[in-house]
Amino acid sequence: MSVFRKKNYMSEEISDIGISERDDAIRALEEQKLEIEKEAESLMKAYSRLTGQRKFRKKQFRNKRALDELVKVNYSEK
Amino acid sequence: MLDKDKIEKVGQSGFSPDEGLNADNREQESFESLILRTESARISEVRRRIEKRREAEKELREIRTKNSDDRIDMEASEISERVNAARNLSERLKKIEKNTENKIAGEASFAEENKEENNEEQENRDKLAFGGEKEPANENGEKLKEESKPNFDMGISVKVDDKAEGAFAVSQEAFAPAFSESYGQRIREYPKEESADAFFSGDEAEVRLSGFGDWDSPIRDENSHEEIYTDFLADASEDGFFDTAVYTDGTLYGQDRTEFVSETLIEPYSDAVFFNSYEAQNDDSFVHSFAEEKIVEEKIYPDVYENGVLLDSGNRYEEKYAFSEMNSKVSDYDDANFELGHIIPNELSENNDYRGEFPADMGEFRFEGAQNGEYKPLPEFEKYPTVSDFGMVLPEDAPLDALDDKDFLALEKESVWEPFEITPSYKEAVEEVPNFYEMNSIADDGLSQEPHLSYGEGDELLSFGEYEDSFGFAPLNKKELSLLVKRKEKGIELLKRQMNTDNHYPGGARLIAEDLNLQKDVIDERAILLSACAKGGFGDMVERQRAEMLSEIAQYNELVEEYEKEIGHTLPLASRAIPSDIIAGRDYQKLSYVSFAEEAQYSGEDYAVGKFSNSRMSREEKKSLLEADRKERERRKYPSDEENLFDGTMKKSVEAIDRRINCYINSFREKLDFMDNSFSVNAADNRIKKRVLKKKIRRLEKIRAKVKEEDLYNLKRYYSALRVEPDDVLGVKRRGMLESLSLRLDSVLRERDEVNSRLIELYTEGIKNGDIEKINRRGSAIRRRSSKRAKRRLSRDMRVIRERIPLDIKEKLVLAANKLIDAESYADSLEYRMKKSKVRGNARRDMKNEIRSRRRSLKPLYADYRHFLKKARKYAERADDFKKQLYWLLLLLLTVGAAVGIYLIFREQISGFFDF
Fold first, then answer.
1. How far A15 CA sits from the closest chain B CA (Å)?
2. How far apart are CA B426 and CA B428, in angstroms?
3. Handedness of CA B818, B822, B823, B825 (dihedral sign)
4. Which site among B180, B356, B459, B532 is 20 to 30 Å from B81 CA-CA?
């Protein structure tokens, strides 16, 4: 485990995020967003169980997944 | 389904009728009869399949009922059986583990074999299809022999629309890639000889696909089968697997040799392909999807001995195929029907995990759509009852106003109501039941801010004296009257079934108003009936109708009271003297329709004051009304909230995606530019890289709209979940859970919103939309120009790479030159950005430092470049020297060879010349 604390780009001032760490910040935030969406989906699942309405469940996400895959390669290349 | 052979046979016989026919009947049997015969064979085949499916369904039902019975009284023997089954399962799991290891090893060997064929494009596609995972490596480096037999056999059932014309092809070539992409299967082979089949209207068929697959793909681990299956169907339909006329009932089943796949592959009723689930529900030929699972049961019976000799061992292994439904099926089904508000038989809800929450007295059906108070008519009553429901037989969809005298005369002949003289004015008396919603829209125009009543005009007065004279209602005989009663009562029943009586909730005045109007129609219809009975003079029938009417009037008055409580206005009650008046032959004043201006109920204080001015209401009632009113206001706030939501959160979310895609498209384009303006060792390699980049850009542009759509869809889902109210969920415990869930979801969505705004700031660097695009565009142009200039400057020296020098030196030189070009061009474009962008503070300082460091790095980079250039030149000179040496050597050899040749040719002359 890294001894350095992971920088929290949410609390950081936008003017403090330099161009050299901009990519890192974007990547971290995109990952955070993905995590949030995962959690939201699990909550949705719980909702659908609770209410008995399947409309809360996830249906299609292939394009978004494709987008993630397309740009993931670029992170390492940048 | 038509066999391929049969089709060919028909086709051949069309051109040469002699073939395939009996010699005696050759002349009589025509081509058409042959087609008929084939058609009948086809039909019988379809019938056979339908029968088969029905049997399967029956068996399924039996198993289900058996299971439910068994669940209630489980005996000790069954428990022991289950223990055995658990043991079997553990063995199976072991087998599976072993199998998986084998497969991983098999994959590795397969990857090695095909290594040469894989170019970069292929890798990219694989990454997309298989979740970016690399091929599993075999650590031991063992190459296991690839299994020759395919390890899975999948099928998807399809059906061609009955009305479709011509033949349709459903090819496995279309099926395979979609399947491969969605399930992460590496399909290596599939039988191409059976690749296409022709289907005709009404055909049901099963397209099978067998091959060599990897069931434990990362896609399958990460995502639920439901998601994968939806993906697969969407992919397949994109690839043209499902024609507009060819659809599937969503049944996908498969059998794996390892006997564990089939249990999870089935996802029925997918609305991706399934357009109309209601149709399928009523379609006899429709069969609920099921999983086919092979079960091996060990059963122990007493051993059979005869004279001490064992004749038959008690242990038996019975193989059977059980049809087990998925647990999620009912919820799938619910969802397909939810939007339409269709009824769902409780029978189907058996396996539902939330069934315990519904009260037992809900009867045979429950109304999904009515859960949120939105009543939608059931499919069978989508149209409000018309006169045809009350006895007249009218052509369907023919509005009464459009019918002229001739039509009515024609109707008279067809009609069962022969004794009556039907005239055009009949329609005025027995008019169509007014559409409540239409009436609302009329009442809403321009009108009051509070609920109001609309009273009937003069034509609402039904005079039975006139009625008799005008429409020829002569006293009916008993048979005719019973017919009339039967038909009218059917209509009345239909009206009653439309009522929302059980769904009235506090604040739901609209539903009560709806019921009031329906009840009014019921009483009007009953009045006509009662009058006819009274004229006929049949005491028992009159008495019955009278009693019915009295109870209906009581119900009407109850509704009136309920409505008054809701809206705070008084309404005229229906008099209990109506039936007596009708029997006595007096005119009947029709009751009034209640018009309800929906938005007026919650329009503000004025209304609230009016509502409570009703002195009949107690303090508690007023309090509860106020509470209900507040709740309803809360409910009705949502639409406007949604609009606000779209302006704020949703817009932001979509913008974040847009910016993300733009960012990557820009960076890819810059890379392309750089590739154009830099050096490369291998031109072909460079071309491939460029192609891949272009493909990525195209793909990003293509999916942009779809990703945004998906995001919006997800957001709508999230926010609609927030709107679920505790009242919509039954059970106290669940309500508590719901509250905590909605709190969590709310905070999660807020967090997402914040992340989105931060992302947008990062992507735009805090610059306005139009400006950032301009800066990006110009920055890219500057970079392009700068790199072009640098390349031109270096290109003269870089000609050395065309010489014969070692590849590694060549690569290092090219890399150094490219780094130089990159640093120079990036510094230039960054300088421009710094001038134009308004970043301040550390970010600006960082940008300056970046530019400075890039400028400084030019010197060492240039040194590197000179170093490798020098080396390359040295190698080139050496090669040059070697070339020169080779040249002299070659010249020498040629000279010597020429001398030898001359000597050999002119040997005699030379010897003669020297022969003294």
1. 5
2. 5
3. positive
4. B356
Closest approach of B269 to chain A, Cα-based (Å): 12
Chain A residue whose CA is closest to B234: A60
Q: Chain A contacts of B766, Cβ < 8 Å? A: 14-15
Judged on CB neighbours under 10 Å (0-12, 13-18, 19+), B379 is: middle
Say whether B331 and A48 touch across the interface (CB within 8 A): yes
Residue type at position B496: K
Distance between CA atoms of residues B800 and B803, nearest Å? 5
Q: Is the minimum CB–CB distance between B430 and chain A shorter than 8 Å?
A: no
Helix axes B638-645, B683-722, angle to 10 degrees: 160
Contact assessment for residue B327 and residue B351, using Cβ atoms and an 8 Å cutoff = yes
A55 at the B interface (CB within 8 A)?
yes
Return the closest-CA partner of residue B91 out of B325, B296, B321, B299: B296
**β partners of residue B318:** B297
Strand partners, B588: B462
The beta-carbon neighbor of A62 closest among B234, B656, B751 is B234
- Residue B699 has its nearest CB partner, among A16, A39, A70, at A70
Tokens of B475: 């006293």
SS3 state of residue B267? coil
Beta bridge partners of B209: B154
Q: Exposure of B48 by Cβ count < 10 A (0-12 exposed, 13-18 middle, 19+ buried)? A: exposed
Whether B124 contacts B134, CB under 8 Å? no
Residue of B125, B668, B748 best to disrupt the A interface, most CBs of A under 10 A: B748
Give me the residues of chain B with pLDDT under 50, please.
1-25, 27, 110-111, 113-151, 165-171, 174, 185-198, 212-220, 239-294, 320-404, 408, 411-460, 463-473, 597-616, 639
ipTM confidence = 0.89
Please tell me the predicted confidence (pLDDT) of residue B130: 39
Residue of A29, A47, A54 lying closest to B332 (CB–CB): A54
With b for 16 or more beta-carbon neighbours within 10 A and e for fewer, the B183-215 pattern comes to: bbbbbeebeeeebebbbbebbbbebebbbbbbb
Of B664, B668, B755, the CB nearest to A32: B755
Taking the CA of residue B655 as centre, how many other CA atoms within 13 Å lie in the half-sphere pointing to its CB? 20
Angle between helices B807-836 and B841-905 (to 10 degrees): 150
